[in-house]
Every structure is written in structure tokens, then in C-alpha cells.
Design a protein that fits this description.
The protein has two domains: about 5-190 and about 350-380, no CATH class; about 190-345, Aminopeptidase (3-Layer(aba) Sandwich), CATH 3.40.630. The protein contains twelve helices and twelve strands. The chain has helices spanning about 20-35, 35-40, 80-95, 100-115, 145-155, 170-180, 205-215, 230-245, 255-265, 310-325, 335-340, 360-380; strands at about 5, 45-50, 55-65, 125, 160-165, 185-195, 220-225, 270-275, 280-290, 290-300, 325-330, 345-355. A hairpin with a 2-residue loop joins β9 and β10 (about 290-300). α3 (about 80-95) packs antiparallel against α4 (about 100-115). The longest helix has 23 residues, at about 360-380. The chain starts with a strand and ends with a helix. Pfam families: Acetyltransf_6 (PF13480). This is BioF2-like acetyltransferase domain-containing protein. It comes from Haliscomenobacter hydrossis (strain ATCC 27775 / DSM 1100 / LMG 10767 / O).
């Protein structure tokens, strides 16, 4: 099998027309190659290349060293995920357990120092979509062993990483990558809703949410087919209110240009909830091979809490997944809320190949695997 690496030097000679995943490449990877990544996502510093493997074209994300940047997003940075975001989530979830929080903070201090010195972010993120949850085709249509050999020749100083592999969603990927020597490094606990099987219909919470929606005669949902810049700026504002202001600036700081690229190729679909002429909530979803994620959501936090905007946008997403016969990956967080609506918890991993690196370069991944043992216990013990 022949491989061809495409970078800025030979991009002009390459045509994407025959690639099966042409729209995704055009919407995401090409813009990242043609300009600085921070123009599209403010807190993502990466280089991007393409790899033509014959059957399809893969996107390769090559992170810079995140420790050099404040608030580098976890979607393109192992350091951002395991050190910065890990510290943030630990403080958030274990804030009342002061002794445990202090212990964890000390662990993150040591881990962060080791990760900086060992160049933790020197990796190749394969087919990374730069969403909180990554999706893949259900079937592997290329030779993983040949791909691995080629990438190790091209990037001998980088670990190889496939993000967001949940064995429940991608059993074939999980088993094949393990057989090729990839290590399963715990990422987080995610919540899967079998909307295609009507799992949410068995829960009382859906009835309660439905009654709430029936009372909101002044609110209505529309699909934004060709949104204006003003509408998209409102969408971004609502996303920022939730993910950056309420939660953490480590979440991806998307821009108007990034959204317009995704919408132009039909990658993301956005449903907006209107109150008269104003968008007050939205859900943005992406679908690949029977799995839906909604990496873009938001709502007006100044709106009265009794209106239940988060409940309404969650219900709308679940019903859309049910309508299309999809498995809905509801990501992590809001564990109790999601369980009440029929979602089940499963572990997700980053699959990492680092056997070719020195002991010191492998050390951060070994430490994160070791830390995962008590982390998984805490996640399950406290229902995080």
C-alpha cells in the first residue's frame, strides 16, 4: 500500500475530489493548512498535514508544545487534557473533599513538570476532528500496521495517538489498535444514549421535559440551513457563555470562520431555539456512521432558570438522534442529569503508540495510565 504525505509544500498538486471524506477534509483540514490554526480556534496551536492512504485521506494534527501557551485546549493537546483540564475537573468535582483535592493538586504539579520536560505534546493526532469527542468510521478500511510503520518513519520523535476510542462504540478500533501495540490510556467517562432503541422513552425525565416544552409556547425550534453572520455570532456567544465563561477556557475557543467552514460542507447541523427574534439556545450536532455527537451547544444564561433551556436543548438533541436512528454520545459531565434521561456510562480511552520513544519520553503516558487506576475508581464511586 502506497502512502503520500501532503503538506503546504505540495498541497497545490493534490486533489481531494476522489477522497471519500472530501467534505470533512475541505471544511476542517484544508483551512488549518492554509492559515494559522489560532485564526480558526484561538487556543489550538498546531500544524496540519494530510496523508493519502489510497482508500481515503487522513488528517494529521501535529501539536506545538502546549506548556508554552495559556489555556491550550485539550482537543489538540495531551498536556491540556491530562494536566490543565485534569486539574480543573479535579478541583470542580472534588472541591468539597479538601484533603483529596490537595493531594490531587500535588500530583498534577509533579505530573505537569515531568510532562513539560518530556515534551508530552510531541504527538501525531490521527484523524482528530478538534471536537471534545472524536468520531471514526465503524469499519477500518486500511492497514493499520502499514500506517503505523509509515508514520513512525515520518515522525520518529512523536507518539501516535487516536483520540476518544470508547470500546462500546468502536470495538473493532479498540481491539485492532491494542493488537498493534497501542496502549489504552484512560481519557474520561462518557454517556451513551441508545436513542435508536428508545432508551430515553423508558425514563420519567423525558415526560417531565416534554411537559415543560409544551408550556413554552413562546419558544420554537428551527434548523439553521443558511445562517447569517449575525446568527452565527449569536451561536458563538451562547457557546462561549456556557463553555468558556461557566466552565473552562480550556474548552476549544471556536471562531466564526471555523463554524462557517463546517456549515458550508454540511459537517455540522445547528438547531436554534428562538424567543421571538432572538436565539436563546442551540444544539450543533455531527453524525458519522450511526453515531451522533453535539460538540456545540449553548444557551442564554441570563434567561430565567425556570425556562429550562438546557433541558430543552438536550431533549431536542435526543429526539433528533431518535428520529435518525442513531447512538448519541453525550460526552462527559452532568452525569446525574444524563443518567436520568437514559444514558449509560462507559470508559473512553486515548490509544497511544510510544514504544519507539525513549524511557523518559514514554514516562508521561506511563504516569497517566498509573493515575488512571484511582481516577477510574473515583469516577465510578462518585458518579462523575
Amino acid at each position: 500500500m502506497g502512502f503520500r504525505l501532503i503538506d503546504n509544500q505540495n498541497l497545490a498538486t493534490f486533489s481531494l475530489d476522489n477522497a471519500a471524506n472530501h467534505p470533512l477534509l475541505k471544511a476542517l483540514y484544508l483551512p488549518l493548512m492554509r492559515q494559522e490554526s489560532t485564526i480558526l480556534i484561538h487556543n489550538v496551536h498546531v500544524d496540519t498535514q494530510l496523508l493519502d492512504i489510497g482508500s481515503r485521506v487522513l488528517g494529521l494534527i501535529l501539536p506545538h508544545i502546549a506548556a508554552a501557551y495559556p489555556d491550550e485546549s485539550y482537543v489538540a493537546s495531551p498536556y491540556g487534557q491530562y494536566v490543565d483540564y485534569g486539574r480543573y475537573e479535579t478541583a470542580l468535582e472534588l472541591g468539597k473533599l479538601l484533603w483529596l483535592n490537595r493531594l490531587a493538586n500535588g500530583v498534577f504539579n509533579v505530573l505537569g513538570e515531568i510532562c513539560r520536560k518530556a515534551k508530552f505534546d510531541q504527538v501525531v493526532l490521527i484523524d482528530n476532528l478538534l471536537f471534545s469527542t472524536n468520531l471514526y468510521p465503524q469499519k477500518i478500511d486500511y492497514d493499520l500496521a502499514a500506517l503505523q510503520q509509515f508514520l513512525l518513519q515520518q515522525f520518529p520523535n512523536r507518539a501516535l495517538v487516536f483520540r476518544s476510542i470508547c470500546p462500546e462504540v468502536y470495538p473493532e478500533w479498540f481491539q485492532h489498535l491494542k493488537s498493534q501495540g497501542y496502549k489504552a490510556v484512560f481519557s474520561r467517562q462518557v454517556y451513551l444514549l441508545r436513542a435508536h432503541e428508545g432508551a430515553h422513552r423508558l425514563k420519567r425525565a423525558l415526560d417531565i421535559d416534554s411537559r415543560l416544552a409544551s408550556k413554552q409556547k413562546h419558544l420554537n425550534w428551527t434548523l439553521l440551513d443558511s445562517p447569517s453572520d449575525v446568527e452565527l455570532e449569536r451561536i458563538l456567544d451562547l457557546y462561549n457563555q456556557l463553555y468558556l465563561e461557566k466552565y473552562a477556557r480550556l474548552n476549544p475557543q471556536y471562531t466564526l470562520g471555523f463554524l462557517k467552514n463546517l456549515l458550508s460542507e454540511g459537517i455540522i447541523h445547528i438547531k436554534a431555539l428562538w424567543h421571538e427574534e432572538k436565539i436563546v439556545a442551540f444544539t450543533g450536532y455531527f453524525i458519522l456512521d450511526g453515531v451522533m455527537i453535539n460538540p456545540l451547544i449553548g444557551y442564554d444564561r441570563s434567561y430565567p432558570q425556570k425556562e429550562g433551556l438546557y433541558r430543552l436543548l438536550t431533549m431536542e438533541t435526543m429526539l433528533e438522534a431518535e428520529k435518525q436512528g442513531l447512538l448519541l454520545n453525550m460526552s462527559s459531565g452532568a452525569a446525574h442529569f444524563k443518567r436520568l434521561r437514559g444514558a449509560q456510562a462507559f470508559l473512553e480511552y486515548n490509544m497511544v503508540y510510544d514504544r519507539h520513544l525513549s524511557f523518559f519520553r514514554r514516562l508521561p503516558w506511563a504516569l497517566t495510565r498509573a493515575i488512571a487506576i484511582p481516577t477510574i475508581w473515583l469516577v465510578r464511586r462518585y458518579g462523575l
